[in-house]
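Need the bound structure for fe (ii) ion, inputs here:
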Amino acid sequence: MPDSPLPIARREAFERDGFLVVPGFADAATCEALMARAGELVAGFDPAETRSVFSTTDQERTTDDYFLGSGDKIRFFLEEGAVGPDGELRVPKEVAVNKIGHALHDLDPLFSAVSRSPELAELAAELGLADPRLLQSMYIFKQPRIGGEVVCHQDATFLYTEPVSVTGFWLALQDATLENGCMWALPGGHRQGLKARMRRDGKGGVAIETLDPTPWPEPTPANGYVPLEASQGTLVVLHGLLPHLSGPNRSDRSRHAYTLHVVEGGAHYPDDNWLRRATPTRGF
Ligand code: FE2
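Answer from helper R.:
Posting the output first, comments after.
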């Protein structure tokens, strides 16, 4: 029996495009359970704890101590549109949270189990990851009407190793469509090298270091970008150098997703990365 051509095709597609879309990776029950758990976590979140807003258009200013200390915790970041000029919440907290981060995969049993599923480990091996370590996770809400945009970026800007090794596993917990702010990506853009790196500045904040000042092309279909629409349960794997983004959500439907980032255990993890963990990263 010859080997099935399918795994080779998936790895080749991932290496060619910088991403891989796997429909039906998780069943509906798993997606619903993760959404229910996120709802419980938000129910336990006291908004008086923070007014930390997540913004990709004003990253250096909005990255505060609450964010920088979240690498080994479960913390809550708000949609920009959810907070008024005096810091008050303009909408109920259930629809105010932009994301939960960044150690759900270690601290919450359900997210840990999904993050350490044999299917995910097998896919990582199939795609050529040698010693993947679970570094960081996020639950993304992309709330109705106020879900913030995420400007074009490479994940290695924020989760940097030498050599670059970060890989993202993005699971659609709800249908992600053109209307509610699905991801977009530039196929093959992962071969252009890293354009920027976020580092701690030694003064309690962060700074973006430009490595290549050439801007990304405008994210339009004419420039080669493609929408990554994803029905519930679809897994999207993203190469750490792949340019990707998502628009704001102006629709009345949320777009929940769970994303897990892994790095190679053999790669160097610099001390001035924003994300610090009290415990070493572990494999699947
Ligand atoms: Fe990203």
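Comments: Residues 153, 155, 244 surround fe (ii) ion (CB under 6 Å). The chain has a mean pLDDT of 94.
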